[in-house]
Write a structure and sequence with these properties.
Blueprint (H helix, E strand, L loop, with lengths): L8 E6 L4 E6 L5 E6 L4 E6 L5 E5 L2 E6 L2 E5 L8 E5 L5 E5 L2 E7 L7 E10 L4 E7 L4 E4 L2 H4 L12 E2 L2 E5 L9 H4 L4 E2 L2 E7 L7 E10 L6
Antiparallel strand pairs: 1-2, 2-3, 3-4, 5-6, 6-7, 8-9, 10-17, 11-15, 11-16, 11-18, 12-13, 12-17, 14-15
């Protein structure tokens, strides 16, 4: 990989994740990662450090004169440093988000029925929007049936797959529970993980059937 760095950019390698972390210190202030294994730019990171380094296979960032070791254990995986508007340095849990697009057979109008998350942990889907502006969402409870344990009836997890039926279009009469079904050519879903530990999301699958009426 060859990158021509600008004067305001810094590049460091994270041995644990196998990523090159690129930090831009001027506008736009961004921290992004290039994954060597996949050969792709893989993610944006929420932390915006003053400097970075790799020490004994651990990746560290510096902010406000303090050093923070990232991903040292599962309980600090998403607990990242940030600076308040008053210059105070603290740590907080930044949610992990993934945006998934459903555009299979884009010429077909579809009735979206369900979503399946192949994951090691429970996520939520707070933002669902179709091409023509239909809006919906799915809380964590939609995947668990309000149950707390995997073995309970209604907890929709089998073989690391979490399953939930789509709620309805909140912009129609009756809203999420009694409104019109989600019906369109394509759909974008923002999937969020908020727990302070490591999680893996392997795949997002959409279940739908063909619709024979307009969904505009």
């Amino acid at each position: 990989m060859a990158i021509n760095l600008e004067p305001d950019q810094e590049l460091r390698y994270d041995e644990e994740t196998g990523e090159w972390i690129l930090r831009t210190y001027q506008s736009p202030k961004e921290t992004i990662a290039f994954n060597e294994k996949s050969g792709k730019w893989s993610t944006f990171y929420s932390y915006k450090p003053e400097s970075m380094c790799s020490i004994n296979s651990e990746f560290s960032v510096f902010l406000g004169g303090k050093m923070f070791v990232l991903g040292r254990d599962e309980n600090t995986y998403n607990n990242l440093p940030t600076k308040t508007a008053f210059g105070q340095v603290l740590t907080k849990v930044f949610p992990t988000s993934v945006t998934a697009v459903s555009n299979q057979n884009p010429s077909d109008n579809k009735i979206y029925q369900a979503i399946e998350l192949e994951s090691s942990s429970l996520w939520s889907v707070p933002e669902i929007e179709t091409e023509n502006g239909q809006i919906s969402s799915l809380p964590e409870s939609a995947f668990t049936g309000n149950m707390e344990n995997v073995f309970e009836s209604g907890y929709n997890k089998k073989e690391n797959k979490f399953f939930a039926y789509f709620l309805n279009n909140e912009n129609t009469q009756g809203g999420l529970l009694e409104g019109d079904k989600i019906r369109d050519n394509s759909l974008v879903a923002k999937i969020i993980y908020t727990a302070n530990k490591a999680a893996k999301l392997f795949a997002v699958n959409f279940k739908f059937t063909k619709s024979f009426r307009s969904g505009g």
